[in-house]
Amino acid sequence: MLLQGIFPPITTPFYPDGNVYFKKLESNVERYSRTPCAGIVVLGSTGEAILLSDQERRDVLKSAREAAAPNKVLIAGTGIESAIETLRLTEYAAELGYDVAMVRTPHYYKKQMQPGNILAFYRTVADQSPLPVMIYNFPQATGYDIPAELVIELAEHPNLIGIKESSGDVEKVRTMVEGTRQILRSATVTETFEAITPRMLAAASRLHGEGGELVQVGAASSSLPPKPSSTAVTVVGKMKTRQKEVGFQVLVGAAQKLHPSLDAGAAGAILAFACAAPTACYEIYAAWKENDAELARLKQERIANAAQLVVGDLGVPGVKYGMDFNGYFGGSVRLPLLPLTGQAKSDIERLLADVRN
User: Fold this and answer.
1) One of 32, 136, 282, 285 is an active-site residue; which one?
2) Mean pLDDT of 164-173
């Protein structure tokens, strides 16, 4: 599966009494679905997943799935400390129609998180998961930083398709990209090389009849009967697809280092800052994709200080206030997280003044 572009790891809105505010969750998802972001991540760190009950996690996954646009890649954060509970939540996400499971590194028993433990955990999850699996490394939160050499070893597993690397270490990104360069897999994409998932293909088949057919690229819009060709696309319903070689895909989590991470080989990013400013993050990726290094640098400079403060320094409360400031619903956080001070709010408003979207 192709993972590229920008993904906001959406927040979980709450009422003042602490209950999940599902209508605001759906409203945010619908709005993100209208942005140029490639997809949406549900139940990441920014979603306060670790502070939700098991039932709340399931309800949030269901609500977000129902509100998302059908053409967006949907990633479910399903990592829990044990492999068995991770698989249970992953199976539920698959039943709902999510495309990828993002599984954070187990970390509570830190002394036992040796290479053998991590290899066994991820291989067990990947072996049994009904969804492709992404590793999720966030050492600032977990206190455990999965070594690049372990990631490179795990990347050989056919159901481990990538990693969200949130350490902010650009050289580690480069090491992982170089160390997994030999891994090549075939991914279904659109005729213009955008991501297509099995869920999207199944929906196209249901809408326009089962099965697909090969047609010549040049004849795809012709009224004449299609003929198979070595330069063919596959038509499923009215969706034209082709195959693209992809490797083990590294997505990063530090918006203030997005441009250098892309230069180091990252395929895209899952950015908490994109919850408040998705278009500003996408503009960096789009400029880089067009090989306009100077524009990418300028766009990166535009958000660097804001991203560092909102996400790096203030965390989820900062992200939620940034969302409120930019027209999304952020709202309150759950204890032990605390609301921001007036000064912190003023600092966010100042830095986001020209990053409105």
Assistant:
1) 136
2) 97
